[in-house]
Amino acid sequence: MTRCCLVPRLKNRAPSVMIVRQYTRAEIRRGAHRHYFEWRVMRMPSVSLLMLAFLTGASLSFTSAPAMPVTLFTFNRVDESNWQVVNDGVMGGRSFGAVAVADGHLRFSGALVTQGGGFTSIRTPLSVDLRGAEGLELRVRGSGRPFEVEIGDGTQSFRRNISRRAVFPTAEDWTVVSVPFTALRSTIFGRTVTAPPLDLTRIRSIGLYIIDGRDGPFWLELDYIKAYGPQK
Question: Which residue from 10, 14, 67, 156 has the highest number of Cβ atoms inside 10 Å of its Cβ?
Fold first, then answer.
């Protein structure tokens, strides 16, 4: 059984024909039920695509860049407390860090020991599309030492994840700092590597580091993290 339908003619274009083949019950019993309808479309312009989507129940989606700014963390939800500490013990170091989320803030604290290592960090998974963003905005206060923010898209080199980090300052009073994506450095285990631009459509993680080469205690508090666009 074969049926034909004409798609309305567009200006200066010939009408398109959509051919639909419907299987008989006998064919279905022989195993053709996996593809009950076979669609063949000839000279299909966009209007035919829309008609095809309507007839088959398919959906056509058109994605656009999210409106800026995008709030990533406000530290008011339970799912915003899933941060993991990574110390320099993986390199034989003795630095240590701890993280806590309470009262709408994240607190990262500990002590740095430069001998044998010299860093500690926290990180969390983050799956978000940041198309159109130009950087991160953080409201922070801390012990006056510089920290680094890391954002990852899962890009690897020689089977190692590429770390993309940039430094930001802190003070004891609350301060809003902006970190443009152009300031990010691409490294693997501290060594600078050549890497493709950050893929903003597939952000996979975000983290915070202290690696300033100074021994001693530190603390950092965050009120929020946002992504900002060109208007900032």
Answer: 10
pLDDT in tens, 187-207: 988 788 999 999 999 999 999
CA atoms within 13 A on the CB side of 74: 4
Measure the CA–CA gap between 209 and 230, rounded to whole angstroms.
26
Two structure tokens written together for 128: 């978000």
Q: What is the pLDDT of residues 23-72, one digit of tens each?
A: 566 655 565 544 443 434 334 444 444 454 444 454 444 567 789 999 99
**CA distances (Å), 18 to each of 36, 84, 131, 158, 159, in order?**
16, 55, 37, 49, 48
Place of tokens 């008989």: 24
- Which among 83, 85, 88 has a CA at the least distance from the CA of 189? 88
User: What pTM did the predictor assign?
Assistant: 0.72
